[in-house]
Amino acid sequence: MQKSSSSYYQKWRLLKDNIARYGVVAGGMGVIAAVVMIFFYLLYVVFPLFLPATAESASQYAIPEQAQGKTLLLDMEEQNQVAARFTDSGHIVFFNVETGKTLLDQAVAIPTGSQIISFAQATPLNAGAVIYGLSNGTALIVKHDYKVTYANNVKVITPSIAYPMGEKPLVLDDGGLALDEITAQISDDSTTVVAKTAQHIYLSSFQKEQALFADEATLTRTDAVLNLPSAGVQEMLIDKDGSHLYLLSNQGRLDFYDIGDKSTPVLKQAQNIVEAGQAVTSLAFLNGDLSLMVGDSSGLVSQWSMVRDDSNRSMMQKIRAFKVSDKAVVALKSEQRRKGFLALDAAGDLGIYHSTSEKQLIKEHVADGLSAVALSPRANAALMQSGDGKIHFWTIENEHPEVSLKSLWQKVWYESYPKPDYIWQSSASNNDFEPKYSLIPLVFGTLKAAFYAMLVAMPLALMGAIYTAYFMNPMMRQYVKPVIELMGALPTVILGFLAGLWLAPFIEEHLSGFFALFMVVPTVVMAFAYCWQFMPKTVLEKIPDGSDAMLLVPVILLAGILAFSISTPLEIALFHGSLRDWFRNSLGIGYDQRNALVVGVAMGFAVIPTIFSIAEDAIFSVPKHLTVGSLALGATPWQTLSKVVLLTASPGIFSAVMIGFGRAVGETMIVLMSTGNTPVMDLSVFQGMRTLAANIAVEMPESEVDSTHYRVLFLTALVLFAFTFIFNTLAEVVRQRLREKYSSL
To answer: Cα(220)–Cα(197) distance, rounded to whole angstroms?
Structure first.
C-alpha cells in the first residue's frame, strides 16, 4: 500500500514537472513569437516607403480639335477625368482624359482685331487661371472651372470658363504696343499682372476693397514701370504672394525684384543661373514658390532658393541640381501639393524627381518631340503631347517620394535654411510646407536623455546596491531593499507630471543651489565622518554594524537644505544675481526650463530601482565561502569587495546597467512631459530634446493612416526596436564572456 502511494506521488510530481516545463517553454516561445510578430508588423508598415515609383501608359489618341490651333497649355482637373487644351487661336478644348473625346470647345472673348501674342498660367495656388497678352497692349484673364454633379448616382464633371476681372481686357500699355511676355498672380482679393512690350515692362496691381456698408467691392489699381533689361526678357514669373518678380534674360541672367510695394519695385539681385555656353530652356516654381527650378540645354535641372547670408540678406542661391539627361530639358511641371516635379527632355523621356529626398523616382521614354505636359493636381497622372500629333495619358504611382536614405540620415538643404542640416519637422500650417523627416535629431535626443539619466542613476544605484548587499545590516536590508524596489512601481506619467510642473521650475529657480549640492553634500558628509571617529566608544557600540547609513540620512537632508538656502547669496555674490543670465551672457549658453538636467534627475529616479534591484541580487548572491575565504586569508573588506565580490557579480551588474539603459532609451512619459519636445541637436545640459519614443507618442494621434508621416513614425519605432535588440544582444554577449571569465572564482 505504501509502495502504491509513493508511486502515485512520484507520477503526480513528474506530471507537475512536465506541466511546468512545457508551460515555461510555451511562455518563452510565446514571448519570442510576439516580439517577432511586432518586428514583422513594423516592417510591413514601413516597407511601402521604399517601394519604387512607377509610371504606365494608359492611353494615347489624336490631339482633340487639332484644327483649333497650336497647344499653348495642357491642364487637367483633380479627378483625372477632364482635361483642357488652350490653343493660340483663343479656344479652350475640354476633352475626356482617357479617350480624347471632345466635351466642350469654347472660344475666349478675344476682342476683334487683336491677336494672342503671349500666354501664361497663374501660380498653381490659383489653379485654372490663365492670362492672355494681346497685340493691342491689353490682357485678358480667364479661369476654367469644373462642376461636379451626380445625375442618377453617376458622377458628371461639367467644365466651364469665367472671367475673374471681367470680359473687357485690362489695358496695360496705353500706346497699344503688343505684350510680348506676360505673367500674373491671381487671387480672390488681389491680382498682379506684369507684361513686357518692346519698350517697357509694366506692373499693374488690382486690389479689391470691400467697404463696410457697400454691397460691391471697389477695385484699386496701382501701376509701375520697370526698365527693360539690356539683355532682353525670355520669361517672367511672380510668386504666389505677389511680392517677388523674377525676370529671366536671353543670356540666362535672373533679375530678382521685390514688388511688395507695387508702386516702387526694387531690384534686389541679378545673377547668372546657367554656366557659360548653356541656355535656360525651361523655368518653373517649385510648390510654395520659394524655389525656382531651372532646366537648361545640357539636361540639368537646378534648384535656386532664397537663402539668408551672414549679413541676414536674402539672396538666390543654387542648393541642388538633378541630371535629367544629356538632352535639353524642354518642360518642367511642379507638383501642386509636394516638393516634386516632372521634367521632359528633348529625347522624349519623362522624369519625375523629388527635391527634398534628392532622388530620381521615375525615368520612362514616352515619345519623340514632346512639347506640352500637364501634371494632375494629385500628381498621379500626366498628359503629354508629342510631335506626331498624339496625346499620351500616363498614370503615376508615387506615394512616398519624400523618403530616401539621404533625407532620413544625412544633412539636407531645406528651403529657407542657410545651410544643410538635420531637421525633424513633420507638419506645418500650410500646404506649401516641406516635410523634414531626419531621424538624426530623434536618435540624438534618445541617446542624450538616456546618457543623462544613466549619469544620475548608475552611481546612486550601483553604490546603493553594493552597500545594501555587502555592508548593510540584514535587519535594515529587509526594509531598504523592498522600499527601493517599490519605487519602480511608481507610474512614469506621475514622475513626468511632477518633473514638468514642479521639478523643472524648482531647478530653474534654484539652479545655483542645485550645483551647490555637489560641493556642499560631500563636504558635509566627509566632515561628519571625520567628527564621528572621535565619538565616545560607548556611543559607537550602541550603533549596530551595518546601520551607519541611517545616521547619514539626516546629515544629507540638512546638507541639501543648506545648499539650497545659500543659492540666492551665491548668485548675488558670484553671478551678478542670476546664474542663468551669467551662463547666457558670459558663456553664450541658453537655458530652457525643461531640459536634459530635469530629464536626468527625473528619469534617473525611475531607472534607479531597476539597476539597484538586479545589481543588489547579483552582489548578494556571491557565495559566502568566497568572501569568508578572502577575509580569512587576510584581505580587508574593501579588498574582498573589489577583488572578489564585484568580479564574481560583474555579469549581473553589467546586466543591471544594460537593462537600466534599455529602460531609459524606451522611456516615453517622463521625456514627453519634461523635455519641451524640441528636436534639436545640442549637447548642452540646459537644452531640451525629443526622443524616438516621445516623438511617436506626440505625433502618431495626428498622423493620417498610411501617409508618409504615419509610416515614418513606424520607421522610428522600427529603429528603436532594432537599436534595443542589437544593443541587448551585444550586452548579452559581453555578459556571457564575463561569466565565463570569472566562473572559476
So the answer is: 23
Helix (H) or strand (E) holding 160: strand 154-162
**Alpha carbon distance 279, 297 (integer Å):** 5
Q: Give 117: exposed, middle or buried? Use CB within 10 Å, 0-12, 13-18, 19+.
A: buried
Q: What cell does 342 get?
A: 516632372
Q: How far is CA 321 from CA 324, 357, 404, in A?
A: 9, 12, 16
> Could you give the CA distance from residue 564 to residue 582 in angstroms, rounded to a whole number?
18
What is the edge-to-edge ordering of all strands in the sheet holding 372-375? 54-62, 390-397, 381-385, 372-375
The C-alpha cell at 601 is: 534627475
Each residue's pLDDT tens digit, 588-629:
888 888 888 999 999 999 999 999 999 998 888 888 888 888
Per-residue buried b or exposed e for 334-370, using 16+ beta carbons within 10 Å of the residue's own CB: bbbebbbbbbbbbbbbbbbbbbbbbbebbeeebbeeb
Q: What is the pLDDT of residue 215?
A: 57
Strand partners, 138: 171
Q: What is the pLDDT of residue 270?
A: 85
Distance CA 640, CA 236 (A): 84
3-state secondary structure of 155: strand
Contact 295, 370 (CB under 8 A): no
Q: Which residues of 552-590 are buried (b: 16+ CB within 10 A; e: fewer)?
A: eeebeeebbebbbeebeeebeeebeeebbebbeeeeeee
Q: Which residues contact 330 (CB under 8 A, 6 or more apart)?
A: 281, 282, 295, 344, 345, 346, 370, 371
**pLDDT of res. 125:** 53
Please say whether the beta carbons of 296 and 318 come within 8 A: no
Cell for 531? 567628527
The CA distance from 41 to 701, in Å, is 19
All three cell numbers of 139, joined, read: 490682357
DSSP per-residue string spanning 652-711: HHHHHHHHHHHHHHH--HHHHHHSB--------TTS-B--HHHHHHHHGGGSPTTSHHHH
CA distances from 457 to 52, 410, 603, 607 (A): 46, 33, 8, 6
**How many Å apart are CA 572 and CA 579, to the nearest integer?**
9
Cα(537)–Cα(532) distance, rounded to whole angstroms? Answer: 10
Closest CA to 341 of 324, 366, 317: 324
Residue recorded with cell 543661373: 273
Radius of gyration of the chain measured on its C-alpha atoms: 37
Burial 414-444 (b: 16+ CB within 10 A, else e): bbebeeeebbbebeeeeebbbbbbbbbbbbb
Residue 23, all three cell numbers: 508551460
Write the CB contacts of 641 (distance below 8 Å, at least 6 apart in sequence): 466, 470
Residue ranges in 75-141 assigned as alpha helix (H): none
How far is the C-alpha of 683 from the C-alpha of 671, rounded, in Å? 16
Sign of the dihedral through C-alpha 240, 241, 247, 252? negative
* Average pLDDT in the chain: 86
Q: Is 152 left (phi over 0), alpha (psi -120 to 50) or beta?
A: left
Residue 229 DSSP class: P
Residue written as grid cell 538636467: 597
Q: What is the DSSP letter of 226?
A: E
pLDDT at 212 over 60: no
CB 172 within 8 A of CB 137: yes
Classify 219 as helix, strand or coil.
strand
Phi, psi for residue 326 in degrees, rounded to 5: -90, 0
Backbone angles phi, psi at 105, to 5 degrees: -120, 110
Which of 68-82, 204-218, 583-597 is modeled with the greatest confidence? 68-82
Using CA atoms, how far apart are residues 484 and 608, in angstroms rounded to an integer?
8
Angle at the Cα of 457 (from 456 to 461), degrees rounded to 5?
135
Q: What size, in residues, is the chain?
A: 745
CB 141 within 8 A of CB 170: yes
